[in-house]
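So, does this match?
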Amino acid sequence: MVETHAHHCNLIELYTEGRVKMDMYMAPELVAAGDLYATVKDGALDFGFACPCYVKGFCYGASLYCDIPGGQSPREQMCWYYLGGGKELFEDLLVTAVAVHPFASTQNTSEVWIYSNKAINTIDDLKGVKMRAAGTRIDVMTKLGAAAQYMPGGEIVPNLEKGVIDAAEFASLYTTRFTGMTQVTKYAYWHPYKSTSSFWLGFLNVDIWNEFP
């Protein structure tokens, strides 16, 4: 993701012929990962890249554009977003609820269901499992009996190592290949309905967006 977002920053500068320049920082260099939307909303930062599920506290509907269980396939999501009114609805949701203007920047394919240090072979095995989740998956996993909680991506592996959590759901095998997730867990479970596709967003403070010609 870092390489992708850095590429987007370069493209923005290229396509605006240098009129817009972007300096990219990693969370938490400037702000904690979970506070990024609020920080851009308040104008302390101009622009951010993040997953839509991280704005769930401000706008629950935004999670529908993230890796919602049983959601659309990547192709279906792209068709709905660009041809079926999804883009306009998303912009209205985030401008109204969070005062940021969103841009779909990257699309992920299906994700790993759970990385875990406990065997999960039945629904009953989820009961009491302390796990990291995000967005609507917190609600789903809680209903299935897990003790689900949100934490930023950078805290997952250390908390798995320390035993603070037993399991985590986070991104695809490709995305997590450098995180060490598979080195600190015993099991990786794949399920096609966990997360069929999701957008990563670029989002701009709405006042700055409105200043553009």
Observations:
- The beta strands are 47-50, 100-108, 112-116, 130-132, 147-149, 167-168, 187-190, 198-205.
- The helical segments are 2-15, 36-42, 74-83, 86-98, 136-143, 156-162, 206-211.
